[in-house]
Amino acid sequence: MAEISSTMGLHRIGIRPKILLFVLFPLFLLFGAIQVNDIRQTSQRAETQLVESMKNRVASNANKINTQLVQASSVAHTTRNAVSAGSLSGANTLYGMLRKNVTDHPLVFGSAIAFEPDGFEKRKRFSPYAYRKGKMIATMDIGVDGYDYTQPQWEWYATPRATRKPTWTEPYFDEGAGNIFMVTFSTPFFSGQDFAGVVTVDLDLAGLLNLSGVQQASSTPLYVVSPQGKLIFHEDAKLLGKTFENGITLSTEEKRTVADQLQHADTWLVALGKGTQRERWLIGAPIGVAGWQLVSLIDKNVVMADLQRQQLLIAIQILAIALVSAVASWWMLDRLTKPIRKLTDAAEEIARGNLSVRVGAGSADELGQLSNAFDAMAEKLAETESLLKTNVLAIGNALQRSHNFEELASALFSELAPLIHIGQASLYRVGVAEADHTDGSDFSDTAHSPDSLVLCGAYGVKDEFSPPPRIAFGDTLVGQSAIQRAPIDLKSLSSDFIPITSSLAAIRPCQLLVLPIVTNDELLGVVELLLLVPLAEIGDQLLKNLMPTLALNMQVQARTLENKAISVLHEGKPIR
Fold first, then answer.
1. N or C: lower Cβ tally within 10 Å for the chain?
2. Range of the domain at 288
3. Three-state DSSP class for 120?
4. Average pLDDT value for residue range 65-73
């Protein structure tokens, strides 16, 4: 039942909504799905390209810092070579060399030469140091004015002393000498095979990125991290020297992942808060000479904002196209269905009998042609209806001029024969022949005998084939039609039928019609027609329209006959 109701509901939907619902709407959905998929793929490609671009940018900045570190370390190597070669003699010469190191290289905050105890002029500790103090270059002896650098906590001296190799220290606060957070590059020098001391350059961590030419935006902070995970650079100077986890909030799993990535020698990316509205990317690249990592924290929403705006613009454009298309489609469908609605209304008017309605051709397209064809059909129907009314009226007038059943039959067949191509015909009425009452017998008892048909007249028959004057109900097709009160229509006639003859030829009939004449459930008679050609639709309609008129005239003739019978009874005169 639900299925039937659904089907019936669809049948009640107009053409325009159906086209929109079953054609245009699916097309819009398909178009939208294609566009959404295209936007998604474009977004994925753009995100991949953006990630690669950000990785390349971080790697490029790491290379800039690495270049500065290589230059800074080369200052220490040059000074070491000079010390090892003995070309620098005397404390003043050493101080002069160190001042030059600081002056000539903006990235270098300070430079020192630290000798082993008793290694320079039998001094207990000697470490000349030149460093920046405001706009001046100040000097000091770390071994005398600072601290005992030979103690193991001072990595810049202890590590190359133990490994006999150059080293970059972890970030530290150089209290007593530079009094700033710094990292130090130390390279050892030797006296023969014996360790003799180190040459150092100190780098001010606060200015590391600016001096390296690395620009950082507030939305993408940068960090420099040592191999032990300590912050060599952070925008908040208070966090220098602390572990990387102090500079950024990470989950336990993210901490493990980042710790693993910090050991890699390649550029890497870790997504923080992946799949959330606050997803961020942590991108790192190695600073090779020092073993450090440059790490950038990127807010995905910020860097994707331009792409998201473009996607929003594309989505708005798609919606605008869909809206314009929908409005245009609705307008076009209205233009398309309006003539159809006019045709429907006109057809309903014709069904109600108004044959004067016309739709008029509004265009030269197929709908215009359909409208023209409809108007031609309506015109033809009107002409047919007019012709039917004219013919029925003409036959009715002829029947009204009849004075008895014989004249009625003659007038009927004379008017009807040329219209529907009658070859032979006969008209029977219910009752007895008029001649049976010429003796004045009681006509009223037999005039409407319920079991017999009396011949009123015939058309186109020869004497030897004249129809019988009386037919009992049930006899022949005429009597059968009277009993059934239903038409009998035979279209495929056998060769046994009597041919219809004229003076020139004999023609076999094509169709036999036997029509009962009934009004208000009262049988008045039967008309039998043999047609030369099959009955056309207009002929069938003519007979249907004519039957009420024929019945009325037969009733008039029956009453006339009854009146004559009464006259005979009262006057004793024969019927004329």
1. N
2. 46-303
3. coil
4. 89
Average model confidence (pLDDT) for the chain? 83
| CA–CA dist 343, 322 (Å, integer) | 31
Strands (E), 347-469: 422-430, 452-459
Q: What is the pLDDT of residue 572?
A: 57
Q: Answer whether residue 497 shows pLDDT above 70.
A: no
E-strand ranges in 380-468 read: 422-430, 452-459
| 148 and 171 fall within a common domain | yes
Q: For the chain, how many structural domains are there in total?
A: 3
Helices (H), 279-354: 300-303, 305-351
Instruction: Indicate whether 311 belongs to any domain.
Output: yes
Which segments of 416-549 are extended strands (E)? 422-430, 452-459, 470-472, 488-490, 500-501, 506-507, 511-519, 522-531
Which pair of tokens denotes residue 221? Answer: 């902070």
For residue 190, name the pLDDT band (cuts at 50, 70, 90). Answer: very high
Whether the CB-CB separation of 458 and 478 falls below 8 Å is answered with no
Distance (Å) of CA 378 to CA 121, 145, 340: 131, 122, 16
In tens, the pLDDT along 535-557 reads: 888 889 999 999 999 999 999 98
pLDDT single digits (tens) 353-380: 787 888 776 677 777 787 788 888 888 8
0.70 exceeded by the pTM?
Answer: no
Is residue 381 in some structural domain?
A: yes
Q: 312 and 243 in one domain?
A: no
Distance CA 65, CA 289 (A): 10
Please say if the pLDDT value at position 261 is more than 60.
yes
Residue 18 exposed, middle or buried by CB count within 10 Å (0-12, 13-18, 19+): middle
259 part of a folded domain: yes
Q: Which residues are within 8 A (CB) of 421 and not within 5 positions of it... i.e. 6 or more apart?
A: 531, 532, 533
Look up the CATH number of the domain holding residue 379. 1.10.8.500
467 in the same domain as 341: no
Which amino acid appears at position 133 of this protein?
A: K
